[in-house]
Amino acid sequence: MISFKSGERNLLTDVPGVLVGNASNEELKSGSTVVTAKEAFAASVFRGGAAPGARETDLLDCDSLISNVDAIVLSGGSALGLDAAGGVANALRKRGKGFAINEQTVPLVPSAIIFDLNNGGDKNWSCNPYQQLGEDALADASPEFSLGSYGAGCGALTADLKGGLGSASLEIQFPDNKTGYKPTVSVAALAVVNPVGSVTVPHQPNFWAANVEFADEFGGLGVSSSDNGLTSGLPALKPVVRQNTTLIVVATDAPMNASQLRRLAVSANTGLARAIYPSNTPFDGDMVFAVSTSAVESGRELIEEAGRELVIGHAAALCVSRAIARGVYHAESAPGDRLPTWQQKWGNRYNR
Fold it and tell me: CA angle, 225 as apex, 246 and 217 as ends, to 5°?
């Protein structure tokens, strides 16, 4: 029988080889997050929202010549935040990391951004700060990282609460049927939660993702007993609907090629719909990156392999929903905030 359990850290870095780094500027109320590894890794992407901001994501198309990338950067700052990837690329090049072309080394760093320019932070800079934030986030990359108001989640907002940086993981135990597949597969998600919609039931502390929670990881309140959930009409939305986007990275140590990772990203995207109401809207630039840290193996039976992909995709979607809720649950208050945190609004009454 197939079984799931939470990973040791309950973070994206439970996938062996994955590292995450954060850099934030409290006055700016913004920051950047870097996902990387010791070796270049296979990746793909799925865009669910209609208002994306991204760089080098065409590299991740299934028909691209390039099969591996060196890092993925998630950042605040809207289009200005795309400079964070430049800082990461510069730093990687100094380390000799990247795609070798004759005597040159070119780091490949796809990235995506959220809009956090109207969150109460001081955006009157004279020099774009995101390149340095990207470089600092790469320098911070390690197996351990904080959730909530850190990195690209520093200034994130939902419709009615502060957003944040969340993560969750699962270990999948497959039956030992002597097929040569790994019997234990790690799957995890990282989320920068900044949607036009809501992550909690209207007028309740309960998260939409409550039915997939593991071990009270975002309060243990369970599903809402109120009848004002999906039948109550449209949940709360941001008053200025063009200032949004939720960004996701899902990772696994199951060997997957670009086509398989594309399917994994599509499956993982369903986790947004279970945790954010509404999601993938015309005013969100929602994007899901999917990465594998293991080399693809050949000679697999197509149907059997697709069956494992189904399980891994389902686990990824569960991790996405949990990561979204955890990002909001762990958000911290700061001077100048325009929305309360979940802890400020509900924590004193419902924390266990």
Answer: 50
What is the distance between the alpha carbons of residues 179 and 185, in angstroms, rounded to a whole number? 14
CATH code for position 250: 3.60.70.12
Provide the token pair at 167.
């993560």
Q: In which residue are the tokens 């135990």 written?
A: 173
How does pLDDT run along the chain (352 residues), one tens digit per residue?
A: 899 999 999 999 999 999 999 999 999 999 999 999 999 999 999 999 888 899 999 989 887 778 799 999 999 999 999 999 999 999 999 999 998 888 899 999 999 999 999 999 999 999 999 999 999 999 999 999 999 999 999 999 999 999 999 999 999 999 876 566 778 999 999 999 999 999 999 999 999 999 999 999 999 999 987 655 555 677 888 876 667 899 999 999 999 999 999 999 999 999 999 999 999 989 898 999 999 999 776 656 666 778 889 999 999 999 999 999 999 999 999 999 999 999 999 987 665 5
Dihedrals φ, ψ of 58, to 5°? -65, -25
Q: How far apart are CA 105 and CA 89, in angstroms?
A: 10
Instruction: Specify the pairing of strand 99-101 against strand 104-106.
Output: antiparallel
Residue 248's beta-bridge partner residues? 191, 288
**Residue numbers of the domain that contains 133:** 3-350
> Is the distance from CB of 265 to CB of 280 less than 8 angstroms?
no
Number of folded domains that form the chain: 1
Tell whether the torsion through CA atoms of 198, 76, 320 and 336 is positive or negative. Answer: negative
Determine the residue type at 180.
G
Q: How many other CB atoms are there within 10 angstroms of residue 92's CB atom?
A: 23
> Is 162:337 a contact under the CB 8 Å cutoff?
yes
Residue closest to 44 by CA, chosen among 291, 253, 286, 267: 291
Residue with tokens 């009848």: 227
Residue at 148: amino acid letter? G
| Distance of alpha carbon 298 from the chain centroid | 29
Q: How far apart are CA 173 and CA 310, in angstroms?
A: 14
